[in-house]
Amino acid sequence: MPPRRTAPKRGLLLRWLDRLPIRWRIATITATLVGGILLVFAVAIGGFVADRVQNDFRTQTAARFDTLQQRLRIRGVDSLGRIALEPRLGSINSEPGTVMTAWARNGQDWTLLQSTDPRVDLGRPGDPDDEIGDYRVESRRFELPLRDASGRPISEATGQLQTGLGPSTFSFQDSRLRFTSTVEVRIGRSYAAVERTTHRIWTALALGVLGGTLLALVGGLALGTRAMRPVRRMTGTARHIARTRNLGAKMPTSKVHDEIAELGGTLQDMLDELAAAQARVDGTLQRQREFVADASHELRTPLTAVQANLELLALSTEGDDREAAESALRSARRMRRLVADLLLLARMDAARDATREPVDLDRAILEAVDELEPQMGEHEVELDLEPVTIDGARDELVRMVANLVGNALRHTPAGTEIRVRLRPAGRHTEFVVEDDGPGIPADLRARVFERFVRRGGEAAGSTGIGLAIVRAAAQRHGGDVRVEPTDPATGRGARFVVTLAPPLPRADAPDGAGPEDAAAATAPAGAAAGRPPLRVGGRIRRRLRGDGDDRPADG
């Protein structure tokens, strides 16, 4: 089997570019290309200009040699053969940083005639042209005519000839004769000026490349930002749709038919299809909710009749027939509760407005606890209720409380303490039901408010929609519900925390008082005196803390 080929790893630069936003990617690539082009041009132009500067340096030196050759002359000083150079080099050289020396051949040796700066040694004739210190040295030899003391060219020569009769002296004169002397002029020019000029050239070019690259980066960023502006508008529209779930929102359009316009059109087509599909689904769900609500409503009457007949049958029969009738009665009651829960949940799903009125939530809680008295057994319920009035549907609130307390009674062992608390908490109302039972498994807490989720399956004895009703009721009253363990360290116990709409001022609260003032005004005298919260055992004692009314429960 041939070895599998692995895709080549992308370079570090490409991986880095992939992590950049698109506008920065465009700007970076643009700046890199422009910077590379500018760098190539800068190197070419800089080299050309530097060569021109050096050539100008050499050309100026050569021109100075030509000037010297035209102006310099050798003049005899005395009869001893001493000569002098005219005019002086200092009068010809006025450029700072330039040193000149003039040498005359004297037989096999050279005699220094003049130097513009004796402190600088430019070498002797015959030395190679080179850099001496900060000076670039160049030399040239030329023949200069000899002149006498009066400045006229020397045309007479005197000499000796060795003959057989001995040495003889001769002299001759001819106006066409010209006697010359070999002179070497060495010019040393400071190269610092050339280097400074070259440095300034390279610095200017480097700054130009850097500035051009930065301008390309800014321009590329501006271009990328402008090019991505339609994408940002589409992103804002998508976020608005995600936040509001409004599939009817329209994607922004572009006047130019390009790739971004095509993307926007494709997204708009997708939104239209999703909106159509959502409309179909919503219509189907709405029909299902209406069917469940209507069916549940229609089933209540026959189920009530069946339950009444089974109760009469259980009272009028004995033995096995009575047991069968009671078993059927229990099933009918369970079915009636299921139908009632489905009807309530369907109405909530359909967003049917229930009759809303100010509800004393503390009294509604006592009413719900009173209904659950037959199920308490050996459980102990502790009530700590502050007077709170909210705007809501009384039946839904009572059912919410009954479901939470009934859930605690059903899923905790006998003797477990259940605590119910109600209090205003700033901008909302907090209602808590907690117990010290085994608690809810961590993997079930996230799904416990979903429909038909039951711990223990069919044997749990519940319909699986009680907590779904709790959440629906809490949301219809401007709040929500969450579950957490009573003891976070061990995970035991279950605490259901319901947040509801902020409390309304009580009827007996002072004018202009807020929820906290209303609660303080209606608090019972027992609470002010530090009396412990009302504790209810197997026999419910109802106590309305607003007026201190104690009434024994039925039965």
How many strand elements?
19
The percent range for helix content is 40-55%
Using only C-alpha atoms, the radius of gyration works out to: 56 Å
- The name of the CATH superfamily of the largest domain reads Histidine kinase-like ATPase, C-terminal domain
How many domains make up the 3D coordinates? Answer: 3
CATH hierarchy class name of the largest domain:
Alpha Beta
Specify the biggest β-sheet. Answer: 7 strands, mixed
Tally of helical runs: 13
CATH topology of the largest domain: Heat Shock Protein 90
CA distance, first residue to last residue: 85 Å
Q: What is the typical, i.e. mean, pLDDT?
A: 76
Features:
disordered C terminus; single chain; 3 domains; Helix Hairpins; seven-stranded mixed beta sheet; alpha+beta; 555 residues
Secondary-structure map:
Elements: H1 12-18, H2 22-71, E1 73-76, E2 83-86, H3 89-92, E3 98-106, E4 109-115, E5 131-132, E6 135-147, E7 156-163, E8 166-173, E9 180-190, H4 192-227, H5 229-244, H6 259-316, H7 319-349, E10 357-360, H8 361-371, E11 380-385, E12 389-392, H9 394-410, E13 417-425, E14 428-435, H10 442-445, H11 466-476, E15 480-484, E16 494-500, H12 515-522, H13 525-528, E17 535-536, E18 541-544, E19 549-552
Parallel strand pairs: 1-6, 11-13
Antiparallel strand pairs: 1-2, 3-4, 3-9, 5-6, 6-9, 7-8, 10-12, 11-17, 13-14, 14-16, 15-16, 18-19
Helix pairs in contact: 2-4, 6-7, 7-11, 8-9, 9-11
